[in-house]
C-alpha cells in the first residue's frame, strides 16, 4: 500500500494498532462496542482496533484505510468543497499491480 501511494504521490502512512486500541471499546451489553466514549475517544487507530476483532490474524495480512478526511464540507486552501478523491489512485495502483 505504501509503495502504491508513493508511486501515485499520495500521502499515506502507517498508523499504530496497539493492544490498547483493541481494548478501548468495552460494552456493558455485548462483547464489543462499535462507538467511542468520553473515556475512549474514537479515531483511526480505534476504528482499526474495532475491525481487528473480525480478522483471524489481525497483526498481518489486512488493511484498514481510514478515509473519513477525504470529504470537505467547505473549501480549504488545497481542496475544493466535496470529495477530494484522495486515495483512489493509490487503491487503483494496488489493485492493478
TrEMBL record:
GO MF, one annotated term:
metalloaminopeptidase activity
Concerning InterPro entries, the annotation shows: Leucine_aapep/pepB, Peptidase_M17_C
Q: Indicate the segments forming the Cytosol aminopeptidase domain, all copies.
A: 3-91
Give its E.C. classification number: 3.-.-.-, 3.4.11.23
Alphabetical keyword list: Aminopeptidase, Hydrolase, Manganese, Protease
The protein in question is named Peptidase B
Extract one GO cellular component term from the record: cytoplasm
Which biological processes are named by the entry's GO terms?
Answer: proteolysis
Organism of this sequence = Salmonella enterica subsp. arizonae
What would be the name of the gene that encodes this protein?
A: pepB_5
Query: Which protein family is named in the record?
Result: Belongs to the peptidase M17 family.
User: Entry's SUPFAM superfamilies?
Assistant: Zn-dependent exopeptidases (SSF53187)
Q: Which domain of life is it from?
A: Bacteria
Amino acid at each position: 500500500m505504501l509503495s502504491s501511494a508513493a508511486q501515485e504521490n499520495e500521502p499515506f502512512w502507517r498508523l499504530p494498532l496497539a493492544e490498547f486500541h483493541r481494548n478501548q471499546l468495552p460494552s456493558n451489553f455485548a462483547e464489543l462496542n462499535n462507538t467511542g466514549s468520553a473515556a475512549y475517544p474514537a479515531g483511526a487507530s480505534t476504528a482499526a482496533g474495532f475491525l481487528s476483532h473480525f480478522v483471524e490474524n489481525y497483526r498481518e495480512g489486512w488493511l484498514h484505510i481510514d478515509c473519513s478526511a477525504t470529504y470537505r464540507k467547505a473549501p480549504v486552501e488545497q481542496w475544493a468543497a466535496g470529495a477530494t478523491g484522495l486515495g483512489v489512485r493509490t487503491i487503483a495502483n494496488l489493485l492493478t499491480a
